[in-house]
Design a protein that fits this description.
There is one protein chain. By secondary structure, this protein is an alpha/beta fold. The protein has helices at 8-15, 21-24, 47-56, 72-82, 92-97, 113-122, 137-148, 164-174, 207-210, 222-226, 237-254, 351-363, 371-390; strands at residues 38-43, 62-68, 87-89, 103-106, 126-130, 154-157, 181-189, 262-268, 280-286, 291-297, 305-312, 315-320, 323-328, 342-345, 394-396, 403-404. The strands form two sheets. It has a ten-stranded mixed β-sheet with strand order 14-13-12-11-7-10-9-8-15-16. A six-stranded parallel β-sheet has the order 3-2-1-4-5-6, sandwiched between helices.
Length: 405
């Protein structure tokens, strides 16, 4: 017992200056001067798209000249943010045909990510694409290939890759502070309202354009449009929506960014009745040197929000929207919670990720979350969905291109 124990002073001394450089070294200065104009367009003017557009507009010289969406009300809200000078359209090809537009922010439902990426790079646009990158592993492979055959800058909207808190946490793991990590646990808990039974849409919705890439053509449905993440036609469900963020961090820290070998997942819908996808699930992932779990429920808010827990032989790290906390091993036998030996207070802002993309437009260097990262990050969640739907273990080949279940 005494030989294995570690007090706060010795633990910090053993870490040295681990992670401290990230607290002050990262400058959030704006990357564009007033004369460095970048003309952009927003494709997908829903809540997330408008929110990220606001962040882009904090940078001098960035202008959104066009707002594109299939829903009239979304276009109107986007114009309020972009300015009255901005044009509007239901047809994204009009955006891509405009030679004055240098870059596009794509924040559509997942089923449009692939088609719009393919068309966008053919049109010579740089692209900031919201996560999850793909609607399937097969599509993700094609997306990576298409981008690498182009000269375009593509950033996937996985802001943790540019977060000072997450970068500092990674350095702690890289420095061996936690020892060999044997278990990583990702979780996301929200207590959401049940799905609406009807939705009253305000203004025109181009339903045919919305569902154009879908295999199954459905009659117009305001509920499916408004809460599209709850239906397989338009997304990978909550498993890919939130899991692409969290599983990427686990893989980045512990497996050189590579996806898992296999996955097994069980889930059900208990709260969001009417959804295709489960609102509660647990996936178990096999990696070469550790196991990982990914659990979510939208029917309870215990530890509200997301948390990633890394459990190593020497210590444990909790990472969430408040920052991170590190605890030394072993924990007290009386069940009390030990004092954190190191912590970082701060959230996960999107601003550094947007700045990184703008910087890369100018320098033509690789962004922090290129398509390979986007593809590998969502492979695990896609694999879990395959396991869930086929009710058996699903495996992924080493090249992350083929699934077997």
């Amino acid at each position: 017992m005494a030989k294995n124990s570690m007090n706060r002073r010795h633990f910090i001394a053993g870490m040295g200056a681990t992670g401290l450089g990230f607290l002050t070294a990262r400058s959030w200065s704006r990357v564009l001067g007033a004369n460095d104009r970048i003309a952009m367009a927003l494709i997908g003017s829903g809540g997330r798209g408008r929110g990220v557009m606001r962040i882009f507009l904090k940078n001098p010289g960035v202008e959104f000249s066009t707002i594109c969406d299939v829903y009239e009300a979304n276009i109107a809200e986007g114009i309020k943010i972009a300015g009255e000078h901005a044009k509007s359209t239901y047809e994204y090809s009009e955006v891509l045909d405009n030679k004055e537009i240098q870059a596009v922010l794509i924040a559509t439902p997942d089923h449009w990510h692939g088609p719009m990426l393919f068309d966008g790079i053919k049109a010579g646009k740089d692209i900031y694409l919201e996560k999850p990158m793909s609607h399937s592993i097969k599509e993700g492979v094609k997306m990576v290939k298409a981008v690498r055959e182009s000269k375009q800058i593509v950033q996937i909207g996985m802001q943790r890759r540019s977060s000072p808190a997450v970068q500092a946490a990674k350095k702690i793991v890289d420095d061996g502070v936690l020892g060999d990590v044997v278990l990583a646990r990702a979780q996301w808990h929200w207590n959401q309202r049940p799905l609406p039974k009807t939705v009253d849409l305000q203004g025109k919705l181009d339903w045919d354009r919305f569902q154009a890439p879908c295999k199954h053509k459905r009659p117009p449905d305001g509920v499916r449009f408004r809460v599209w993440r709850n239906f397989w036609d338009y997304s990978g469900g909550h498993c890919t929506d939130q899991g692409t963020h969290l599983m990427d961090v686990i893989q980045w820290f512990l497996n050189d960014g590579k996806p898992p070998v296999s996955a097994q997942c069980h889930g059900a819908t208990y709260n969001l009745i009417g959804a295709d996808v489960p609102d509660t699930f647990c996936a178990v992932y096999e990696y070469p040197k550790f196991l990982a779990t990914w659990t979510l429920t939208y029917g309870n808010s215990y530890h509200d929000g997301w948390t990633i827990i890394f459990q190593g032989r020497k210590g444990t790290m909790e990472l969430d929207d408040r920052g991170y906390r590190v605890y030394a091993e072993p924990w007290p036998k009386d069940g009390s919670r030990p004092e954190a030996v190191m912590e970082y207070k701060g959230g996960i802002p999107t601003e550094p990720h947007v700045e990184n993309f703008l910087e890369c437009i100018r320098s033509r260097k690789e962004p922090n979350a290129p398509v390979e990262v986007g593809h590998h990050a969502v492979c695990g969640p896609h694999l879990a969905n395959v396991s869930l739907l086929r009710k058996r273990r699903a495996t992924l080949n080493p090249e992350a291109t083929k699934v077997k279940a």
